[in-house]
Fold these 2 entries.
Entry 1:
Amino acid sequence: MNTYVSDEDSQLAMESEDDDNELSDVELQDAFAKGLLKPGLNIVENQPKRPANNADGLKQCLADFRKSLPWVERLDLTNKPAVDIAVQAEGKVSTQDSGDINADDDFQREMHFYCQAQATVLDALPRLQKLKIPTKRPDDYFAEMAKTDQHMQKIRQKLIMKQAAMEKSEKAKKLREQRKFGKKVQTEVIQKRQKEKKAMMSAVKKYQKGMTDKLDFLDGDQEKGKKGVNKTAVHKKIPSAKRKYKDQKFGFGGKKRGSKWNTRESHDDVSGFRASMAHGKAGKQKPNKRPGKNARRKMKNRSS
Amino acid sequence: MAAFKRKRGAEVRTGKTAKKVKFADNGMEPSSVAEEEQKNEFCVPAPISKGKWKNKERVLVFSSRGINFRTRHLMQDLRTIMPHAKADTKMDRKDKLLVINEVCEMKNCNKCIFFEAKKKQDLYMWISNVPHGPSAKFLVQNLHTLAELKMTGNCLKGSRPLLSFDPKFDQEPHFSLLKELFIQTFSTPQYHPKSQPFVDHVFTFTITDNRVWFRNYQIIEEDASLVEIGPRFVLSLIKIFKGSFGGPTLYENPHFQSPNMHRRMIRLAAAAKIQQKQTVKQMQKKKKMEEQEPVTKDVTEDVFVTPAEEKPEIIELQPLPPKEGKKKKEFKRRRMLKRKNL
């Protein structure tokens, strides 16, 4: 029997049991007489298709089909994946007990299969040994293998090539690093030497001009061992004011052209504030060690 | 038919059935078997089965026409690792599947693995227990054969495998049926004349993502260190039938999506994306073409109106008188003079 669904209340529809497209007039008249038809356009709804799952049939089939063989014939085992001993030793225990493994995560998936196989092997080997089935092939037993020797040679070659390539790339990397490092060390040494030379020359000049009368630049190497360390450390960490200014002006490609300059940050920035200048010492004289013309005239008159 | 029938279980004569393999000069040591001739030819002895072969399982592995090289290699690999397997010629696609039952009977096989390729793209596999038993159809994906160089393991040809199953196989009736089918098909019978007595590899069947994953590992050490031999593939179950290659459907996999549908979904998704872009463009065009009414009133006009008195406009016509300076410059002048006089 078909159940008819009218267009207006198709949402509260009843599903039809039998999908029959050929609706004869007689049938329709019968249905109308019985009161199953409602006014309006009637649509026959299909039963949603449910996939077949005949559990009883499956069990029956299994019972018929099953062969009761001793375990020796079948050699099958059902087990959960084992926790690998090596993995355990490293301390990385992956969460295999947490339900489904992600089929897209290749490494996890393959590890899961590997561990399952391992568990089987660990279970099965003692059983096989009890049944006197050998699992280890003696060294002098030559028999045909599933893959030919030629093929195994090819595989070995490929592995060796891969290893060789890796080693080569490692060596190249190390060499590059060494060269860079060597270059760095070289430049540092040269710079150090130049600095020393400069310092020595300026010290000699000062002595020549009569500004210092000490001769300790001659044995400066002993003291520089102590002081030099601090100086170099200081020089490395803090860039000089000149460096800072240059960086600010030209650093990062000099992007200062289009930037705003009357912003909140610039307004709040009080680094350009000099208290001494601001509170106006009313034009402080330039501290000049050389006395003025009058003073010099007087001094000259006095001395002479 | 040969007049001489070899007695099963007796010692095999190495003369007839042993394989003569010529070893090239690749540094292999001669076998330590003293009886054999020390020429360039070495005889590889045939496997000796020391018991009676009782469990008569034979598997017929063959395919339809239109398969590609990978499937062909897979079939060869299956025949290699399963000594109880037999080969047959390709079946014409015109014949119905029930013909396979007759083919198997002629070859005296009671299991069958049949490969079918559609559109030269999709590979389907049937596993069936031939006379009456159940059969299952799968879609094969992610197929890798023995010959791939990444599979570095090796095993004896014809050695018996261990079978390893996921606990999920025991949880559902259709999976337990599949498990039984796999066990009977893939396990080599004991004392099969072509089998080797050692157990040195293991097949794993795992259920993940509603599919059955197959792997083959070689057992290297007693502490269960393994290397993969291959082949490897993934089976998506489609249907289980009660009869062999036919009969009522016992189970249909609701998660299975046919490869055609899959390709269609991908194409539809791509098409939908493009269509969406086009509709967006069209709408933008439409908006531009529409006449926009000129706005008569400026909504933001009153924002800066503040209540205050209006100042009268005064226009200065004469310049302002100069302001008186606050700073007294007299003292400054005096100071400057003083300095000069110094």
Note: The domain at 59-258 of chain B is CATH 3.40.50.10480 (Rossmann fold).
Entry 2:
Amino acid sequence: MATTASLFKRHKGLQGGWHYGPSSNGSTASLFKGDEHSNGYNISQSDLAMKSSSGRILPLFLLPNNSTAALQSYQPPMTSIPRLPAASVTTSCRPIFISGEVERYLLPGVDLESDGSDRPTLLLPFQSSLLVLTSHRLVFIDEASASAREIALSAIIHAFPLKKSMSIRSMFASPRVRLQVSISNDGTISEKGTKSSVVTLVMRGKNTDPDVFYGKFMEVLRSREWELTASAANQGSTGLEGSSSSGSGVNDLRITMPVVGVSGILRKEQETWESTDKSLQDAFQDLNALMSKAKEMVQLAEKMRQKLLTTGSNSQGSSNDEEMGSKQDMQDWLLSVGIASPVTKETAGALYHQQLSRQLADFVKMPLEKAGGMITLVDVYCLFNRARGTELISPEDLLQACALWEKFDVPVLMRKFDSGVKVIQNKSHSDDEVFARISSLAQKPDALRKGISPSDAAFTLGIAPALAKEHLLSAESRGLLCRDVSAEGLRFYINLFNEIDSANIYTIKSHGLLNAWQLATTVSV
Amino acid sequence: MQKLGEFKLPPFFNYPPYFTLQPVRETREKQVQLWKDLILDFCRNQKIFIISLEEDFPLFSNSAIERSLSHEAKVVFLSALVTDGRAEWMDKGHKKCLILWMRIQDWADYILRFVRENGLEDGVMTVEDIRSGFETRGTELAGIDRGVLMRALKLLEQKGKAVIFKGNSADDEGVKFSA
């Protein structure tokens, strides 16, 4: 295997006597002649190239270690096609994120090809996928088959710069980004592989800007957020005690004093408070920084909640109601801070409404269950925006997102009642089932005597009063109930008109609804 | 069983929705039908010929369940009777309604039958006699509304069964029946 030194010398036409080693600042490799202080050549990536026997220019790669003889030359192409592990998606074809993973960009119409031979082969079992760039992975989603594949960013050794050639052929060709990825022994693209291969992202989507994508891609690769998650998991720290990467620089400079006795504890408290304060300040200075600090903020909120819990249980009980109120608020707030990676116009561009629509479909599942299968659009608007945090959506966006559901196969739908109230409900929700419940409720003795008000129905059915009223009105229009307007307001009774025989108004059949009603009403008098 | 005077009220009179105008078409039709029949039955029983919407009509409220018909509801039910030919609005403002629990034609037949059964042909009776006289006591004619009676008599006159003429005094008219 050729070494850097010999390759470089051959490339640059240098004569012998040179040797290879790390440069003085340790960040690049250099060739030296004689001792270290004489002239040397700094070797950068672009310097290293090799001409293969077929005449193609093959790049050589400096591995991050830069240690002597850590150079790995380009491997001959794999005879088998590299495989991508499958990625999991939700029922609305949105990727399922791991903890700490944030979506950064969306690109439609992407194909993935291997670069092995002169004829490229497809690496994905589907064409024209939706590429989701996250802080941790590249996810390729095929909406038609509701399946996806992924490449972990940690498996990417190198991303080639975009070619900017001016040939006519390149103007009409789809933009391409080539990546070197590491491959394990069984051919799967994974981080701990021993071999490598080059794959090409082909951007066939219309109106896509390859430079914007490439810029975001490089940014994400540089920030290496997957390592943060890994180290946080390893250490089990909360990230606020001074071990997060952004705060570590500051804490390294802090003079550490011995932590002894009460003063030590107090000092530790003080330090914790100061670091929290600084963290808060950093977070709020820049909204982008806030996005990346979102996870820290949630953890901070969790700590506060824990504190609330402990102080609540310690108190004498006099202010218990207030504590419970704020505890409940905190818990609700924490529950609602559920979306760490919102779909924004920035990340999704032209796909904004589509992806928003899908994210909404995923989000709305839990509130729907809590609310009993149906929830008003106004409530969804509040909940969804609260969960998104800073990237709020407008009411029009919400309406459009709901309207798009007709086009996809999602398990929810939007429905408009005659009175104009719009709700979101599960596709599996059955009106008839609700009517059956209302009908049996209306035939209970109390309801026969006094009827049902919307709040009674809401209480018994376990749904919001506005929705209960809608259901009662629907039941009325179906002929199940009749309305009664009086000083007490609007109430509904089971429809007895159908039971009354016009020819025989004074007689009541035994065992009928009319009989049951009469029994219930005469007893009370 | 509840009563309103001598009149027996049906059980559904205590059903609160009966007193609220129903918005759903099918339910409304049924409700209207029941009210039409009830109004006619009640008026026949109580010999009521005119319902004034500006006054309280005992049938239109039920104090036991604390419900009464709204003005709109009353108009709807009475208008339905008018459409059926069993009632007539007496004014343009729809404030007074004449209830024909017996149609004018039926009244005419009834009068003729009464005259025949009592052998009153070729005799002369005053209109007032017919309304409150001795002969008609106990019959439906007792207490009949004057306007209704006149129309029935006029109908008979058209058919040649009676002749109406002005009496001696300026007050009353007389009728002579022929067989």
Note: Chain B touches chain A at residues 1, 8, 10-12, 14-17, 19-20, 22-24, 26-27, 30-31, 33-34, 37-38, 64, 66-67 (CB under 8 Å).
